[in-house]
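Notes to self after the Tuesday call (sharing in case useful).
The group wants a holo model before anyone commits to mutagenesis around the pocket. I volunteered. Ligand is iron/sulfur cluster. Logging inputs and output together so the record is complete.
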Amino acid sequence: MAVWPKDSENDGLQAHFRPTDPDPRTEITRFPFIRRLLKSRKFQFFWILPNQIIFWVVILTGLLGVASPTRNFSTVITWYIWFCAVFLLMVGVGRGWCLMCPFGGFAEWVQRSTFWNRRPKSLTLGRRWSERLSRYGLLPSVALFVLLTYFEEFYNIAAPGVPAYTSTLVLFVIGSALISFLLLERRSFCRYLCPLSALIGTVGATGMVTGFRTRDRQVCLDCKTKDCMRGSEHGYPCPWYEWPGSATSNLMCGLCTECFKSCPSDNIGLFLQKPLTSVIQPLRRRWDIALGIAALLGLVLFQQVNALPVYATVDGWLNARMHFPGYPNPVDYLGIIAAVVGVISAYVWLVQKVFTRRDRKPDSTFTQWFMPIAYGLIPLLAADYLARQLPRFWDHFLRIVPAISDPFDLGWNLFGTAHSPLYNVHVLSTAGVVRSQLIVVALGMIASAYATWRIVGRDLRSMSLRANGLRLATSGFTLLLGASMLALYVAMGGAQ
Ligand code: SF4
Ligand code: SF4
Ligand code: SF4
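Result:
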């Protein structure tokens, strides 16, 4: 029998689990054509393949192509288009990128030693992820994202800088995934380590796809085989260690369709949901996700602050004092992230002090208050990351047109666009770029205030005095954070 890693979502769920059932009318998989597609073992392969080709071309062109980063295919597609497109995909579809991701996809092909077949053996040592570390959930992913972003800033990779650095970064992620897949079982890398996983999972909670869910929970509770978790000849055991019968959010469903193929009772479907459902609905929240949200918010706020002239002065002063070679100084980098986590924590502490009912004080913990308030910030987090990508996108995404014609700097003109004037076209003026950022953040701010109002009203109702006062205080804090981001975007003036 398979042994499942402990985490706060899956612990003891057969005994306590009470999810909200998905609405059968919104089931995408009720259409026979879609069912046939998703049942095919080649389904995920054909999503991964195009991205796999593009990313190997990215690696090669970064190493061998034109030296100018604004003309090199690898830097143009990665930093002007891909990063922005991935955020749109997260906001729309949750882990849609994970379905087609070439990093995990490549490593999984090697691990399974097949592109799509169900093979009984895998090429892996099959080690379990440490139970002690699994308590920290996605925090290693958050830490690795913070570390990788530091190197990206230090080497100016996404500005974009030297194209070979982009290739190195992509090779590093693919290499780490490969090593991890060869050592650890299933997609432990995606579940715990991938630097993108925490961001995709949290931002993806705003999305309109539920992930794979059971149609009738009672059938799952009575199910003897649990093929979705243990695998069968039709499908692999869930690579993400999820049980579709327990899911109350789309956080950890990689949309790989294995459970859909292997459930003997045909009790699994893919459903649509209203935006923000996976932010508001979860009945049990995860402290690692809540802390991750605060840290990721700190990181994107750092990326706003670093575009202000005053930051360069402070960073330069710190570097001179510490004899540190260049931007960004690790003290201000980590300091800004820690300060944002600190401000959010201090606010939660204050709110807890003011609003906890006297008779509930003995059993009211900081984490109980921190989790719902942090989850409410997810839409703002999503909006801020997306807004931060917009200047590069609007100013330069058309540079892909000349870049695709001569990716290896061999004097080719594959599509007749090598000298296209689109290279110099900016789709929006600077004022237009700033307006687009303000619109995105304003939408995120409103969505966050709404989500916070709903979450706090439900999760903290039994703990708090003056429920409406608490809702106003927490939603107001969200609006204040959003307003600070708006002010920063105005001050940044469309800076990249
Ligand atoms: S978690 Fe990371 S490696 Fe895994 S599929 Fe998602 S982006 Fe790719
Ligand atoms: S195999 Fe099907 S019925 Fe059994 S637990 Fe999994 S989803 Fe439910
Ligand atoms: S097996 Fe099912 S629940 Fe697990 S990641 Fe794949 S689609 Fe999601």
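Two things stood out.
Residues 430-459 form the longest helix (30 residues).
Strands lie at 209-214, 268-272.
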